[in-house]
Amino acid sequence: MIRKVMMKVLIKIMRKKGYSSYFAPKIIKETINDFKNTKNVNFRRKIWAYKKGFFSSNIVKYGLNDENYRDYMPDFDYYKLHPINGQFGKWIDDKMTLKYILREFNEYLPEYYFYLQKGKITKLIDCPEEYGNEVSSILNLLENKRNLAVKLIAGSLGEGFYKLSYKNKEYMINNEVVSLEYVVTFLSDLNNYTITEYLFSHKDIREIFPETANNLRVMLVNDETQKNPKITGSFIKFGTKKSGMIEHVWAGGIFCKVDLNTGNFSSARTMEDGEFVEVLKHPDTNTFLYGTIPYWSMIEEILLEISNYIPQVRYMGFDIIITDDSFKIIEINSHQGINLMQAFYPLMKCDYNTKFFKRLRNEKSEVIK
């Protein structure tokens, strides 16, 4: 009871300081967790980090010190800026809304087949006419397509993602064989999920690791005071056997810096004991972790076109799967995580970013007053 009362009081204080209802409790919990569980930073350095606006775990990740900390976006400041896109964030936060908002760019989005809500199945825009609104229709489509993606509408960080497969007359969920009865129950119980096209990455990307889609993240900022939108950072993630179906770096995945001028990727890192550690080869395939992002110039061009098409959405983190013949945008994040991005692209070291985020801070300060 005392903890609940204290949490309510703290949330109220954080709300008065300008944090949104979403991030007020989040920053309290994450700060407590950071203080308790960051073992490789002493008490004095933790206090230093908090005063500068960072979680102490980022001292080691970024190599923070008195000389360079201003190059990085502080965690507390970044949380306070939420929601950066205001009411227009709804256009991209919901995957199904995104599909219709970007109808003009449908060739760069996965095909959407069904929407599942508490046992009710609704056909979506790309579902062939011959299929109905029953679980049997999903199974028939699966037998035809062999692989389908099952996604939570508003999920992030891989939350609520499943790979549904049919091979050799067997059904699989996340590559594990299950019975037909299990699949039927699984699909019937899903709420607020979509059934979409399952994407396989480009052959050059698959050579590094073929078991995951290996997601490309691109940060794009559209500051109306600086004339044109700009891509200000990018990295690509690779899964491992340890990380499972999703390329979570915190669970053993790998991420590489993408050069914005050339599309070359290199400088691979993974997470070990709370630190970013450099790796040269993939641990499972023994393949060198460098190369070039296929279709990089086209990706840049289309993302900038999208930004100009919806300029109201001024800050976006695109999640992209590069396929053999093109690329598909699987998600756009309205308030993307910045830990991995800042490992390669410190946000406040970029003039375009600095002007944008400083203006946002001023806007937020005026609202609080």
Kindly report how far apart the N and C termini lie.
Answer: 33 Å
- The percentage of residues in β strands lies in 15-25%
Looking at the structure, what is the overall shape?
A: globular
Which stretches are low in confidence, meaning pLDDT under 50 for 5 or more residues running? none
Derived from helix and strand composition plus strand pairing, the structural class reads alpha+beta
State the major sheet. Answer: 8 strands, antiparallel
Radius of gyration: 22 Å
What is the CATH class name of the largest domain?
A: Alpha Beta
Overall mean confidence score, pLDDT: 94
What is the H level of CATH, i.e. the homologous superfamily of the largest domain?
ATP-grasp fold, B domain
Note the run of SSEs as H and E. HHHHHHHEEHEEEEHEHEEEEEEHEEHH
Structural domain tally: 3
What descriptive keywords fit this protein?
369 residues; D-amino Acid Aminotransferase, Chain A, domain 1; eight-stranded antiparallel beta sheet; seven-stranded antiparallel beta sheet; 13 helices; 15 strands; 23% strand; globular
Commentary on this structure:
By secondary structure, the chain is of the alpha+beta class. It folds into 3 domains: 2-84, no CATH class; 88-106 and 202-358, ATP-grasp fold, B domain (D-amino Acid Aminotransferase, Chain A, domain 1), CATH 3.30.470; 111-197, no CATH class. The protein contains 13 helices and 15 strands. The mean pLDDT is 94.
